[in-house]
Amino acid sequence: MMVMEVNGTDIEVELYENSSAEAVKDLLRKGPITMEMKDYAHMEKFGSFGVQLPDNDEHITTRAGDVILSEGNLLVIYYAPNTWNFTRLGKVRNLSEPELKKVLGTGNITATLSLKEE
């Protein structure tokens, strides 16, 4: 489980089983990552890992709560649908769509990513 701490709220993300999610776990095993995430088109927040990760792109339509790897180096959390070629990293498990939208807000955010011991 990955945790994204945003504005004092922990967003719990269940990571999928693929090489992209494993690469994210490997990064987070070295310690938490804090990233600035920009708002895009009132449907997503995105920020850079600063490194290229393996991708597993497929043509999908996102839903609120989907956590995606885009362009091999961008972490994206969706709160509205979008259709494109993306790699699925995980899914928000502890917040409803309205709760997620409230936590993410309308502008840019700072998120701290870490692994949660299971």
Structural overview:
The structure is a single chain. By secondary structure, the chain is of the alpha+beta class. It has a single domain, classed as Cyclophilin (Beta Barrel). It has two helices and nine strands, in the order E-E-H-E-E-E-E-E-E-H-E. Strands 1-2-8-6-7-4-3-9 form an eight-stranded antiparallel barrel. The longest helix has 11 residues, at 19-29. The termini are close together. 27% of the residues are buried.
Can you give me a brief rundown of this structure?
The chain is an alpha+beta fold and 118 residues long. It has an eight-stranded antiparallel β-barrel.
CATH third-tier fold name: Cyclophilin
Q: Uncertain segments of ≥5 residues (pLDDT<50)? A: none
Radius of gyration: 13 Å
**Class based on secondary structure composition and strand pairing:** alpha+beta
* Order of SSEs: EEHEEEEEEHE
- The count of helical stretches stands at 2
Major beta sheet, specifics?
8 strands, antiparallel, barrel
Strand content: over 45%
E-strand count: 9
CATH class: Mainly Beta
Give the number of domains.
1
